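re: that chain from earlier
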Amino acid sequence: MAGGGFLSSIITMAVDKLHSLASPSTPSSSSSPHNNIEQEMSKLTETMRRVQAKLADSEEDNHVKSHSEKLWLSELKEVAYDAEDLVEEYEYEVLRSKQLHGNNSGTHEGELANKAAEIRKRFDEITKEWKLLTLPKNAGERKRSPLTLVDNRETGSLVLESDVLGREEEKDMLVEWLLSEDDMTDNRVSVIAIIGMGGLGKTTLAQLVYNDPKVKSYFNPRGWVCVSENFNVVNLTEKILQSFTEEKGKGEVKIPETLDGLQRALEENLLGKKFLLILDDVWNEEFTLWNELRKPLVSAQVGKVIVTTRNQPVARIMGIRSPLDLNCLPFDVCWQLFKRVTLGGADQPHLEDLGRKIVDKCKGLPLAVKVLGGALRNKEDIDSWEDILENKKWELEETNKGVLPALKISYDCMPIQLKRCFQYLSLFPKHTRLHSEIIVRLWMSQGLLPLDEEIREQRTKAEIT
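^ sequence. v structure.
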C-alpha cells in the first residue's frame, strides 16, 4: 500500500513538527488569538494522529483492496498536503516570533486558526468514511526485526566461497568445460547458459566458477557484466571492454564513444587471447542483438561465455551447447544454510521443528532460505519464528511462485518506517545508482526520517534570514 505509506509519512512529519512547536499552557485569555491558534493546532494534531493510526493499521495489509479505498486515499492525501502547508506556515510564524523576542502582533494567527479548523473539519468528514472499511485486525503487536534493504540488481564477480553450500557438482562441471577446448567452433567462441528461476543461485554459481584458481590462471582477460532487461549493444560493448581492460588502469585505456570504435577496440584487445566473459541476468530474446554483440569476440584464440538467465529462449539464441538447468537445493543443504544464517550454525532444539518447517516452505531456493534466515537472525523467541511460519502469504496463489513468498514475508517483517523508505526507492528506475548520502537527504526531505528539532529550527531560521 505505497500510497498509504507516503501519506502516513506526510502526516507523521506534520504531527512531529506540531509536537515540537507546542508550548506550555499560558494564563492568557482563551479568546486571545495566540491561545486560539494553539488550541486549533492541538485539535488538528489529535485528528491527524487518529488518521495516522488508521493508515498504519491499513498499511499492515500492504495493498489497497478496492477502488473506493483508493479514492478515499486520494482525497485524504489532498487534505494532508494542505495540513502540511499549514504546519509549515505555523512553524515559520512561531520561529519568526522567537526571532523577534515574542513581539509578534498575531496578525496571521487568526487566519491560521481558521485554516486549521477547516482542515480538521475536512479530515473528520473523510475519516468518517473509513469506518466502512474492513481493516485487518491483529491479535497483538508482532515483534519486528529490521532487514537489510535489497539493492538494485547490479551484480559483481566477488563471492565468499565459505558462504556457499551445495553447488560443488555444478561448479566442477562448468570448470571442466571452461578448461576444455573440445567443443570450440570455427568462430572460437563457445557459450553455455545457466538456467533457473529467480533465487536458485545462478549468479552465485557463476561467481564461484569465475573465481576458481584454475579458471583465473587459464583465462586472460576475464570480464563480468550484469545485463538485466536492457540489452543495449553499445552500452554492453562498452561495459565488456571496460571489464576486460580495468586491470590495466583507468588512465591507460581510452574508451571510444561509437559502436564501431568500441567493437574495434574490443576486437584488438582480445586478439589471440583466451577470455572468459560472464553475462549475468540476461533477458534478451532477439538473435540480431546477440549476433551484433558477439562480433568482436571472435578475434580471440579461445572465448568462453557463461550466461545466466531465467528463460529457455535466451539459452537457445545465445548458446551453442546444452544449457545447465539449475535444480533446487536438497532439504539438508537448505537446513544447514538456514542454521548458518539464522543462528551462526548453532543448534537450538526448541526452534528446530519450526525452523525445519520454514525451510520446507522455501522449496529448495537458497535465496528464500537466506532472506527468511536473515529475518530471524539471532531471534531465539518462538513467537518470531511462528509469525513467519504461519504467515498467510505462503498460501496466496498470486505470490506462491518461487522466491516471491519469502521476499514478501520479509518485507512484511520490516518496521513501517523502513517500508516507507523502501517504497520511496521504488520510484527510481531499475539500476539507478544513488549515493547513500543523497538517499538519506531525499528520505529526510519527504519526512521519511525524523529531523532533529534543533536541526529543523536552524534550517528554518536560515530560511527566515
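Residues 24-31, 134-152 have pLDDT under 50 and may be disordered.
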